[in-house]
Design brief:
40% of the residues lie in helices and 20% in strands. It is built from 17 helices and 19 strands. Strands 9-10-8-7-6-5-4-1-11 form a nine-stranded mixed sheet, with helices on both faces. It has a three-stranded antiparallel sheet with strand order 12-13-14, covered by helices on one side. A three-stranded antiparallel sheet has the order 15-17-16.
Length: 458
């Protein structure tokens, strides 16, 4: 029924909010599975890039090569080979140079080279990509430029080559320090090698150095996880991500577990406890909680790309398999590398798909970006949607507060540790409810029914 909000469906379990606030963890609330792609993505893209736009903008560059397929990874595409990667770089630079999106952009605030393993490229090819971006796009003077990499194959000469062309942030995929655990999941460097590499990066003092750790890995203990986080806090790094393991369907990790080659991943309740343990250790070390999975040790680390992407900033995508966003419309570059290169050689922006903007995407961006940072101003959300939203949703926020997920200061909701862990569930609930609310406001004067243990709110 239009405009009829049933909030009880979104209530949390207050008895064990950290481990069991909801039946399952909503990992991707922003995905619009029911949307049909545009029939002619190139026509839509051409229209989007035809006029200048101001506002926040980031760039994502995809490098689809890895030395091997790590068990936990769902992003593997191509095995690294020097000649193949050089040829790919040729086409990637050509895409950057010819893409008409450059006519749309006012300022680029962050650039992220991800993958795959960008550090698999040679030092010369990494420099070629960064120089092409600098020459063809209006990068802000303080633009954050991140190169993602792994310890194996990322020597210090290559690191310095990145710094020399303006890279100011390096993100190293560590996942775990324990050598036995690392080897089990396909990581080549041992603990000593990882620690030496991170120490050498930090002492260079030329840019922000961050790493990521994963909790919930099969065979990982709580003690091992806590030791990893403590180690990380002592290395002189600028930032760290603490990620919850995601087991991708039909991926190598899922298949290994199914065959009995590995134990199952930690149950959700245990992963929640690991998240809390990691959070407590890193914050006791004086680090700032920037967003759901990321902490900063100092003011050098901004994690700007990730924060802007979650808040719905325009994202220009380059490279085979890269995903972008323009005016809320998501698009994907051709993920078949051979097809991608042929289309580039023919002078074509090799789009695979473009989706319409999600309904009420400005409000959704506000919710996602705000809760990713741990704080949502309901007054701001009401200004972005329709009058009456605060009154309509406030009982839900009160229930979440009673359940221990957040605290309310007037109309500002601030996440507590359980709320941080379950933040995507909160986001998903709000996405659904604001859609009903706004559509109801447009169609008629809505009626709202709220139930909490039989009590109704008029």
């Amino acid at each position: 029924m239009s405009g009829h909000l049933v909030l009880e469906d979104h209530f949390a379990n207050g008895k064990h909010p950290l481990e069991r606030a909801f039946d399952r963890r909503n990992l991707f609330p922003w995905l619009q599975r029911s949307m049909r792609p545009f029939p002619d993505p190139r026509a839509n893209y051409k229209e989007l890039v035809s006029e200048k736009k101001s506002g926040k903008c980031v760039v994502y560059v995809h490098v689809p090569f890895c030395a091997n397929h790590c068990l936990f990874c769902g992003f593997y595409r191509d095995r690294s080979a020097e000649e193949t990667m050089r040829d790919y770089t040729d086409h990637l630079v050509q895409e950057i140079e010819m893409d008409p999106v450059k006519n749309r952009v006012d300022t680029v605030h962050a650039v992220y080279l991800g993958g795959g393993t960008p550090s698999a490229l040679s030092a010369q090819d990494l420099q070629r990509v960064i120089r092409a971006l600098r020459q063809n796009l209006p990068l802000a003077p303080d633009c954050e430029i991140t190169v993602e990499g792994r310890v194996a194959g990322f020597d210090l000469e290559k690191v310095d080559a990145c710094f020399d062309v303006g890279v100011n942030r390096i993100s190293v995929g560590v996942q775990a320090f324990d050598t036995q655990l690392r080897r089990r999941f396909g990581r080549k460097a041992d603990q000593e090698g990882v620690l030496d590499f991170l120490s050498a990066l930090s002492t260079r003092n030329k840019g922000a150095i961050v790493c990521d750790l994963i909790f919930g890995l099969p065979g990982q203990t709580m003690q091992g996880w806590q030791d990893d986080v403590r180690l990380c806090s002592q290395l002189g790094l600028d930032g760290v991500d603490l990620y919850c393991l995601t087991v991708h369907d039909k991926g190598p990790l899922a298949m290994s577990i199914e065959k009995g080659a590995l134990p199952t991943q930690a149950p959700l309740s245990e992963m929640a406890q690991m998240y809390q343990a990691g959070l407590e250790i890193i914050e006791q070390a004086g680090w700032r909680h920037l967003n759901q999975a990321h902490w900063a040790a100092n003011t050098r680390e901004r994690n700007l790309y990730n924060q802007l992407v979650k808040a719905g900033a325009d994202c220009i995508a380059y490279g085979s398999g890269a995903g972008g966003l323009l005016d809320g419309q998501r698009y994907v570059v051709d993920g078949d590398r051979i097809s991608y290169q042929k289309r580039i050689a023919n002078g074509e922006k090799p789009l695979a798909m473009m989706l319409p903007a999600a309904r009420h995407h400005h409000a959704r961006d506000l919710i996602m970006g705000s809760l990713e940072g741990g704080r949502l101003d309901l007054n701001e959300l009401e200004r972005c949607t329709a009058p009456g939203l605060i009154e309509a949703l406030y009982p839900l926020f009160e229930q979440w507060q009673q359940a221990g997920l957040l605290s309310l200061s007037g109309t500002v909701a601030v996440l507590k540790t359980p709320g941080w862990f379950w933040h995507c569930n909160l986001v998903g609930s709000l996405f659904e409810l604001i859609g009903v609310f706004i559509d109801g406001n447009k169609a008629e004067k809505p009626r709202f029914a709220f139930t909490e243990k039989g009590k109704k709110y008029a």
